[in-house]
Amino acid sequence: MNDASKLQVTLPITPDTSAAVASSAMVREGEAAAGPDIKVAARNVDVFYGDKQAIKDVSVDIPERSVTAFIGPSGCGKSTFLRCINRMNDTIDGCRVTGEITLDGLDIHDPSLDVVELRARVGMVFQKPNPFPKSIYENVAYGPRIHGLARGRPELDEIVESSLRKAGLFEEVKDRLDGPGTGLSGGQQQRLCIARAIAVSPEVILMDEPCSALDPIATAKVEELIDELKANYAIIIVTHSMQQAARVSQQTAFFHLGVLAEIGSTQEIFTNPKDKRTQDYITGRFG
Ligand SMILES: Nc1ncnc2c1ncn2[C@@H]1O[C@H](COP(=O)(O)OP(=O)(O)OP(=O)(O)O)[C@@H](O)[C@H]1O
Ligand SMILES: [Mg+2]
Fold it and tell me: Which of 79, 85, 241 to mutate to test the pocket of ligand 1 (most atoms within 8 A of CB)?
């Protein structure tokens, strides 16, 4: 289905969006035959900052080898919910999470679970590229080293190179691996952070507005990369760009005032949303 006119379009979508929706629909048709495996499942998740509830009764399934977009107006709880999945909210004073979240069916709040290991399995890329004040090489080598993933320097070199290649950065930096990570351009820094995240072989990658500080060319590179990475990982991307959500994701979740107002295939959400709040948001009536 690559003829956008065949889609049941009830909303004005840009040619850009409709092409992206059509292509993600093709991917989904192939996947539907096998049926998606669920990588992360959240059930009845509530999050409180002190007395204030930021997430209300959210249940969601995140499929394996697929991209899920979280969209919704500023302050609706996208980042808060994203941080539940690798227990980053544990690091925020006064933040309390209830409900159940499983990774491959195992409870991530189980007391026997090692949080450091969880965060290696569930990597995160932030809005603002945040390389360590170290060399490009060390930025990528740090994780594999602390997790004991390499037996010696040659193996570590290999992990660094392959992670930089997967992040589409190796060719640009191969002659300056000892140079500072912070000396790269913003787009390169973000790809360095993605290389750092994938160097520890995560299973899930959480991306919180990874392109919001990037120009269109760097954004296109990161989107291409997300498209390639989804062959091996479950990816969640928070974005304020409807075009980006339509281009890169197969499933879209719309948050509103702390609740998950609607979730469905990206094609459905952008062409035939069931909830009026979703419709208003994606057509730019609020948010
Ligand atoms: N550390 C914190 N302490 C107290 N309240 C917080 C904290 N972080 C977020 N909140 C509140 O929780 C709610 C959800 O915030 P969150 O950052 O998750 O929204 P968001 O959807 O990611 O917004 P944006 O699109 O602007 O990034 C907001 O009301 C916010 O003020
Ligand atoms: Mg946010």
Answer: 79
CATH classification code of 4-282: 3.40.50.300
Give the number of other CB atoms < 10 A from CB of residue 222: 23
- At 243 the three-state DSSP class reads helix
pLDDT tens digits for 273-286? 999 999 999 998 76
**Residue 228 — left, alpha, or beta (φ > 0 → left; ψ -120 to 50 → alpha)?**
alpha
54 C-beta closer than 6 A to ligand 1: yes
Measured from the CB, is residue 80 less than 6 Å from ligand 1?
yes
Residue 149 pLDDT > 80: yes
Q: What is the reported pTM?
A: 0.87
Please work out whether the CB of residue 177 comes within 6 Å of at least one atom of ligand 1.
no
> Distance from the CA of 153 to the center of ligand 2, in angstroms?
38
Task: Domain ranges for the chain, please list them.
Answer: 4-282
Spatial distance between the Cα atoms of 118 and 224, rounded to a whole number of angstroms: 26
Query: What are the distances in angstroms from CA 155 to CA 149, 150, 179?
Result: 9, 5, 21
Cα distances (Å, whole numbers) of residue 164 to 77, 169, 178: 32, 5, 14
Q: Which of 46, 80, 238 to mutate to test the pocket of ligand 1 (most atoms within 8 A of CB)?
A: 80
Least Cα distance to 256 among 44, 70, 60 occurs for 70
